[in-house]
Sequence to fold (261 residues):
Amino acid sequence: MTDEHALETAFRDWLAAIPRKDLDFFRRTIADEWVYTDYTGHVHDKAEYLKLIEELISPDHETELVEIEVKPYGDTARVVGRYTSVGTLANGKRSVQDSRFTAMWVSRDGRWQSVARQAGNIGEALF
Amino acid sequence: MEMTRDEQAAREIESAFRSWLEKIPQGDVEFFERTLADEWHYTDVSSHTHTKRHYIQLLQGHIPEGIKGELREIDVRIYGDVAVVVGHYTVDAGDTRIQDSRFTAAWVRRDGRWQAVAHQAANIGDPIYPEEEA
Fold:
């Protein structure tokens, strides 16, 4: 499997793991030093993200990877793409996202782990 | 005490970010030609994407006069010849704050110098999960 294919598969698995609340998947796939900047510009670490998945996500969440582009740099890879996510949060709020992301992954002991990710909802173009 | 290679790299990248913010109002195209890799991928605060070429075009025609950018926080993590950078910057036009953003970026060391290969920014807004701010 190429690095590009492995990382695209990892992203599809990530999106599928969200409604299942598959915390073991996230513990394996997210590096301990992971830093996540959400679409409101707030920063979360791995433990906070796992808590959000556990407490906030409902099983009705539907996610889809719309675009992905992987560029390896040796044992590191830049991954950019777009995904959609629709569902009801545990607090009753409806969440509808059409987001672009930038992520960095590192290959360790033969497997890829995410070390950073930022996502942003697509809005009106600035330019 | 002598700096490690990674500490030196982190310092170089922080310096490059500070220069970046200074060079925007100056419209210093040469700086961005040198500092951005040809494959640079930029996702702006509205999540629209831009190439290096498009970003340089934007700098030449869309930057308000008199703006001032300031780097507030930066965290650089080195993975060999790749750096993962997260941080916070503001942009002011006179007394008005026009941007208050967090970013995630990636830089690559090539031929002894660092070039940016990705940058995504988001304006800081209300948290998605207000209870976490309590």
Observations:
- The radius of gyration of chain A is 14 Å.
- Chain A touches chain B at residues 33, 35, 37-43, 48, 52, 56, 69, 71, 73-76, 78, 80, 99-102, 104, 106, 115-118, 120-127 (CB under 8 Å).
